[in-house]
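EI: anyone free to look at a 156-residue chain?
SC: sure, send it
EI:
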Amino acid sequence: MEEVRTQAKAAVGLDTLWKALTKELRFVVPKAIPNFVKDVEMIEGDGGLGSVLLFNFCSDASPMTYQREKIVELEESLHQIALEVIEGGHLNHGFSSYKTTFMLTAIGEQETLVDIKVSYQFDQNEDGSIKMPLKTTDSTLYFIKCLETYLLNADS
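SC: here you go
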């Protein structure tokens, strides 16, 4: 399993960002990145650990049309959530495993540090060569930036 780590600062309070990444994720994502995510359906569970979400992508996300993700870690006290792709999306584009973990830490009343860890494995081609993946953290950092912008505008 390979791993990439990065960080982002969001000018949003910890509680607001945590709520958006957990309890309100399926409602907030299509509003935060409307050019990429058409809608998010809860197809299993109640939003807690083990829940499965279906992300339906817009044509701008082509060639990806959908991605199913399962909440595989949810630690309220650490403000940590991990979503693992279980079907579609990244798994159709060079990865055999793909999990994104977010850990939030307050660094001020209206600022949160987001630690991001992407754990993944590549598929191998029949000749043994590795299919090169998309840039693993760029889309996640873009999502955090769009989420920050959405939450700041929603509060005003």
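EI: The mean pLDDT is 90.
SC: 👍
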